[in-house]
Structures are given as structure tokens and as C-alpha cells.
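#struct-pred
JK: can someone run the complex with pyridoxal-5'-phosphate? inputs below
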Amino acid sequence: MANATDHLWMHFTRMASYSAGEVPTIVRGDGAYVWDAQGRRYLDGLAGLFVVNAGHGRTELAEAAAKQAGELAYFPLWSYAHPTAIELAEKVAALAPGDLNRVFFTTGGSEAVEAAWKLARAYFKRTGKPTKYKVVSRYIAYHGTSMGALSITGLPGIKTDFEPLVPGGIKVPNTNFYRAPEHGDDPEAFGRWAADEIGRAIEREGPDTVAAVFLEPVQNSGGCFPPPPGYFQRVREICDAYDVLLVSDEVICSWGRLGEYFGATRYGYQPDIITTAKGITSGYAPLGAMIASDRLMEPFLSETGMFAHGVTFGGHPVSCAVALANLEVFARENLVGHVRANEGAFRSTLEKLTDLPIVGDVRGDGYFYGIELVKDKATRETFDEAESERLLRGFLSTALFQAGLYCRADDRGDPVVQLAPPLIAGQQQFDEIEQILRTVLTEAWSRL
Ligand SMILES: Cc1ncc(COP(=O)(O)O)c(C=O)c1O
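RT: done, C-alpha cells with the ligand placed:
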């Protein structure tokens, strides 16, 4: 639409890049596909932004929203409750692993991360360890954009403009096995090393200053780094040894993305807190949550105790109604089971692309994959900044979109193409993704 750039300030967008061209404007969705204002169809290879897990065009979710808005559009969760928040909290607690039974609703992921850091600090203040406030997280990991969440984020490129940030954000290596600085031939030893780096960071900082470790089950930014075998088990041991909370940031990795309701379940570890958002409503309304263990709520249950934190729209009745309807769809259609049954086919279809000279690595789990692009497969040499700019920003994103595939070409770490389609996707969509990528990546290689 011609007036798209007049007033609309788009997020993480180089606005100038649209000064001549048109902003792609998406007007409709159905299943795994979306349509733009010109009527062109695109395969939604990223579920919007890792959000539309149940797929587009679910009128039953729209109807749940309308019904709730007609009945009770809004009431806060500040000293009052409403039925959909109560029911949803119960449901989420039942699905979450172990004793993660306390659900604090937010409107999105950054707020969930923010709430989790605040809870970690407040918990230790109330349990006799008031100097524990720092957070350990991983290089290149994205945990959101509000000032606390941004401090936990490990991407210098999106932080420097806003410094000084919240003090206490400590960074450790991620689990990029393809570029492992040590143990590159042994995933287990690499996992042990990467987990122990967390222990070493806690030691360096002083265990009495560290409150929490924030980790995604599969790190998104950098291009889908799954945990090596044993990694989370070792991290759990370290957290227990130093009395540090393990926060599983599952803003992307919950609600079926990895073939389980929660990523922690998939990899068999027990966090103290899970942060979530996105797929909880499949995007039909905004919602996030911090899910905490019973132990963490205890200090706030005294007569005058209170977690002094909240947001007006956290646990909005319409969003909670939509989440309940969304989880009904999940159960009825066994979407989580569908991912488990089809993830092998998704992986092997994407792995066909490894015959291309530009494809260095295909990695991920469930319906969550990164394809790392390289200049030289044998040496794993990556692109320099100018090449990366030309390839990813200048060519790939647009070319993939024009060929009918919406996905992400990202260079916040090494250059990757990322895929996370709606969970209803099957072989037909996998093939379509593979074919479009094959054509466009071949063209990209010829331009280098
Ligand atoms: C792991 C993780 N944490 C936090 C966030 C922030 O969520 P939001 O954009 O809803 O604030 C994101 C967003 O992509 C994320 O992937």
C-alpha cells in the first residue's frame, strides 16, 4: 500500500529501504499460507514470527475472542480475577513440567522475561540472599527488547544504541556445534564444555551475585542451536550447586514448536521458571506468561507479601479465551503429535539442500530449523560483512519472498535462513520450501 511508510513505524525495519519500493502488505491468511494486498500467495515459513502455530484462518479462535469481548472485554488481574485467566492458568500449570504451577500472565515475551528476572531478584531478597541479582545468558541469544530483557539479550548490534543497560547481564558461549571452539567432533564433550562455561562464569562473578541463568531450549538467534546431549542436565546440576535459578525462555520453543508443549519436556530438564508467549494463542490475540515453581511463589504468600509487579493488559480476558480455544484445537487435532510424527520428514527434506555449495549446515528440531550459508563448505568460511549485506539484505529475503516463501534470512550471527512453519504443515509444504530454497540459493551462489 502506497501510504504504508507515511505514519507506520515498523519494528526492526530499515524504513529507508522502502522509500522507493512498496512495503509488502499481508491482508489474509489460511492454513500455512498468507496473501498480500495484490492477491499473491506465500507459504508462511515462519508462522508469522514463530507465532501462528495452529495456522491461519481459524474462525473458531476469532469467535472465541468475539464471544469473550461481548461478555467481558476487560478486567485487570490486579486483586481481581476473571474466569478465562483462572481456567487458562490451571491448564498451563497442568501442561508445564514438574511443579511449575504458578502462572503470571503478561502481554508478550519481553514482559515475561522481565517478570522472570524481577521474580528471581525479589525471591533472593526475600530468602536471605539479597546480593544475588545477575543473569547469565548466551552470546547471540535474543530474549526481547525491554531494558531488562535487552540486557539479557546477547546481540551487541541491537543493544549499543540504548546503553547503558541494566547492570548484571553476563554472557557465556552458546551451543553452536557447527562452529564449536572446542570438542567439534564430540557433541557430548562440547555440551559438557558449554555447560561448564556457565559454571565458570558464575564462579568468576561470585555465586552470591548470580540470580538466574536464562536459556532457550533451542537458541533461535544465530540459527537454531539445539542443546548437545547432556547439556541441560549439566546446567541443572550447576544451577543447583550455586543456588541459581534456571529459566527456560520458551517464547518460541513451547506450544508444539519442538513436538512437545514445552521445550524443557523435550530435552528432559526441569526449569525453575518458563517464560512463554507467541504460540500460546497462535497469535489470534497477544499473550505471554511467566510460569514459576511453587517454591518461588512461597515467599510472596505471607499475609502482607506481594510480587510488586504487573501490567494492565497481562492476562487480558480476550487473550485468555483465545488461548483456551487454541489449546482445544491443539488437543483435538493432536498438533504436538503431528509435529513429532512429521519432524523427521521436515528434517530430511531440508537436508536435501546440503548438496548445494552454499549450504553449510542444517540444524534444529521439531518444526524449527536454521540453514547456515557459507562461502566455502570445506573450510566453513563465512561471508564478510559486505557479502552478507549483499546476499541477505540485498538479495535473499526479497528473492525468497518473490518466489512465494516468507521466512527469515538472518545475519545477527553467521548468515542463516530460518524456518518455523505453522504446525499443521506437512510434506507438501516441506517440498515447496525445499524447492523454493533450492532455486533461490542456487541463484544466490551464482551472484557471489
Ligand atoms: C526467546 C525469546 N524471548 C523473548 C522474546 C521477546 O518476545 P516479545 O517480542 O513478545 O516481547 C522473543 C521474541 O522473539 C524470543 O524469541
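RT: quick notes.
The radius of gyration is 22 Å.
Residues 108-110, 113, 142-144, 216, 220, 249, 251-252, 277 surround pyridoxal-5'-phosphate (CB under 6 Å).
JK: thanks, will look after standup
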